[in-house]
Design goal:
Number of strands: 7
Organism: Methanospirillum stamsii
Protein name: DUF1016 domain-containing protein
Strand content: 5-15%
Distance between the termini: 33 Å
Largest sheet: 7 strands, mixed
Number of helices: 17
Radius of gyration: 24 Å
Helix content: 40-55%
GO molecular function: nucleic acid binding
C-alpha cells in the first residue's frame, strides 16, 4: 500500500514537472514568434533575416534544438494565430508543441482552431488522433445528429447528450462493401473495437453485442449495448444497413423501455437510443422523433470518408506531412524524455506503441 501510494505521488510529480517545462517552452516559442512578427512590421524582416536568426541561435545555443528555420516559421505562425499572451499561458501552453503546429498549420479559421485545441486538452488526444479528428471534420459532425433530446431529457443532460452524437459517423477503418448487411457491419465494428470507440467518442463503455433480453416469454437481442460514463446512462445502438424507416424508431423505443425497466439502476439517467442508418431523410426522422417519449437520435454512417472540397484543399498530402514531421526540431535538452499516458476513452488505453517515446519523438515537449 505504501509503495503504491509513493509511486503515484512520484508519477504525479513527474507529470507536473513535464507540464511545467512544456509551458515554459511554449511561452518561449511564442515570444520568439512575437519578436519575429514585430521585426517584420518595424524593420521589414524577410526570409533571409529568419535564416540568419536561425543560424545565430544555433551558434549561441549549440546544445539546444528547435531553432531550425522551419520551426522559427512555426513560432511566427503560432504568435500570429494567438496574439494574446494570457490565452497562450492559460490554454495553448497545455498542449505539446507539435500538437499546436498541427492545429495552426492545418486550420485557418479561429473558431475551428479553438474547437480542436479545447477538444485535445479535454480528451488528451495523441498527435495521430488529433490529425485523424481534423481530417474527419469532427467540428462539422459533432452535435449534428437528429434527436429528440431537448424534449425528452432535462438540461444540461440534453445538451451534453446532443453533443455526444455525431452525424455522420465515419467507419472508414472497415473494409466492407457499400452493400454490407447489418450483421456483417456489427461483426466488423466489434473486431475493430478501438477504432469504433475512437469514432464514438469519450465515455462509451462496451457491455455487449446481441445483448439478450427476455420479455413476455420471448427473446429479444440488442445490436450493441453501452454505458456512458459522462451521461450516466445506458446507450442502445441499433445498426441498419439501409435508409431510415419510421418503424425502426418504434422498435428502438421498445428496447429503451425494456432496458430502463430490466437493467437500469437507481442513479442511472434514462437510457438513450442511437439508430445508425446507411441514409436518412432528416425531415422524416424529425417527424418520427417528435412524439417518441424516449431519448433517441438518428445518424447516418459512412464506410468511406467524404471530405468537403474546402477541407480537402487545406490538408497536405501524406508526403508533405512526413516531411514536416521529419524536419520539425523540438527542444530535447530542456525536456526529459517522458511519455505521458492519457486514456483516450473509458473502454481501454491507447496502445503502448502509439504512446511510446520513439513513436512520438516530436511530442516530447
Amino acid at each position: 500500500m505504501f509503495l503504491t501510494e509513493l509511486k503515484t505521488h512520484i508519477r504525479r510529480a513527474q507529470l507536473k514537472s513535464v507540464l511545467s517545462v512544456n509551458k515554459e517552452l511554449i511561452l518561449l516559442y511564442w515570444k520568439i514568434g512575437k519578436d519575429i512578427l514585430t521585426n517584420q512590421e518595424t524593420l521589414g524582416w524577410g526570409a533571409k533575416d529568419i535564416d540568419q536568426l536561425s543560424q545565430d541561435l544555433r551558434t549561441e545555443f549549440p546544445d539546444m534544438k528547435g531553432f531550425s528555420v522551419r520551426n522559427l516559421k512555426y513560432m511566427q505562425a503560432f504568435a500570429a494565430a494567438y496574439p494574446e499572451e494570457e490565452f497562450v499561458q492559460q490554454v495553448a501552453a497545455q498542449l505539446p508543441w507539435f500538437h499546436l503546429c498541427v492545429i495552426i498549420t492545418r486550420i485557418k479559421d479561429t473558431e475551428e482552431r479553438l474547437f480542436y485545441l479545447k477538444k485535445t486538452i479535454e480528451h488528451g488526444w495523441s498527435r495521430n488522433i488529433l490529425v485523424h479528428q481534423i481530417e474527419s471534420g469532427l467540428h462539422l459532425r459533432e452535435g449534428t445528429s437528429t434527436t429528440n433530446f431537448a424534449l425528452t431529457l432535462p438540461p444540461p443532460q440534453s445538451d451534453l447528450a446532443h453533443q455526444t452524437l455525431k452525424d455522420p459517423y465515419i467507419f472508414d477503418f472497415l473494409t466492407l462493401s457499400e452493400e454490407v448487411q447489418e450483421m456483417d457491419l456489427e461483426n466488423a465494428l466489434i473486431s475493430h473495437i478501438q477504432d469504433f470507440f475512437l469514432e464514438l467518442g469519450v465515455g462509451f463503455a462496451y457491455l455487449g453485442r446481441q445483448y439478450h433480453l427476455s420479455i413476455g416469454d420471448q427473446d429479444f437481442y440488442l445490436d450493441l449495448l453501452f454505458y456512458h460514463t459522462k451521461l450516466h446512462c445506458y446507450v442502445v445502438i441499433e445498426l441498419k444497413a439501409h435508409e431510415f424507416k419510421p418503424e425502426y424508431a418504434g422498435k428502438l423505443n421498445f428496447y429503451l423501455s425494456a432496458v430502463d425497466d430490466l437493467i437500469r439502476q437507481d442513479g442511472d439517467n434514462p437510457t438513450i437510443g442511437i439508430l445508425l442508418c446507411r441514409e436518412k431523410n432528416k425531415a422524416i426522422a424529425e417527424y418520427v422523433l417528435r412524439d417518441i417519449q424516449k431519448p433517441m437520435g438518428v445518424s447516418e454512417y459512412q464506410l468511406t470518408r467524404a471530405l468537403s472540397e474546402e477541407l480537402k484543399g487545406r490538408l497536405p498530402c501524406v508526403e508533405e506531412i512526413e516531411k514536416v514531421i521529419e524536419e520539425v526540431e523540438i527542444t530535447t535538452s530542456v525536456v526529459p524524455k517522458c511519455s505521458i499516458e492519457i486514456k483516450a476513452f473509458n473502454s481501454g488505453e491507447m496502445s503502448k506503441k502509439e504512446n511510446s517515446p520513439d513513436n512520438h519523438s516530436p511530442d516530447q515537449t
